[in-house]
Amino acid sequence: MPSDLTALRAAVLARTDRRRRLHVLGVAQEIDTLALRWGADRGQAARAALLHDVTKGLAPAEQLKLCAKYDIVTQSWERGEHKLMHAVTGAAVARFEFGMEEAVCDAVRWHTTGRAGMTLLEKILYLADYVDATRAFPEVRALRDLCYEDLNAALLRGLDLTIRLLLAERRTIHPDTLSARNALL
Ligand SMILES: [Fe+2]
Ligand SMILES: [Fe+2]
Asked: Does 3.60.160.10 match the CATH number of domain 3-184?
C-alpha cells in the first residue's frame, strides 16, 4: 500500500468508531478484488472505499452544519434521512478536506442511492458497501458471487433488494435509486 493511502487510512479511521471501522476496512478489501476483477483503478477504489462513510458517525445537526459550510442544497425529506445525508456530506468532505479527485467524490456521493448511468467506480463502491464481509443478510453470499460474474446484474439485484426493503418499511424511495434501477433494465 503506498504511503499516501496509509496516511489516508489512518486519518479516516481516527474519525470512525470501532464498529464502523471494521465495515470500512471490509469495503476496502472487497472493492480491491472487485477493481481487479473488472479493471477499475485500484488506487481510486481504495480511496473511495476508505472515505465512503467518513461522515456517517456524525449527528444530524453536524451533517446540517456541513451542508451549510459546503453550500449543499438538500430536499427537506432528505434532511430527515440520515442515510442519505452522509453520502452527500461525505463527498464534500472527500473533496474539500481530503482533496480527492472528482471520480472518487462522485463514488462517495452516489454510494447510497445509486444513480442512472453509474461509472464503474460508482458501481463497485455501491456493491462493495452492500456485500462486504461484515454484512450478514440472507442473500449476501449469492449477491457477492453475482458481483464477480455480472456486475450490472448484481447492481440491479442490490437496487431491487433496497427498494423492497424500503417498501416493507414504508420509507421514502429516493428518485435516484429508481433511476438507477430503470437505467439498468
Ligand atoms: Fe454509507
Ligand atoms: Fe458503508
From this structure: no
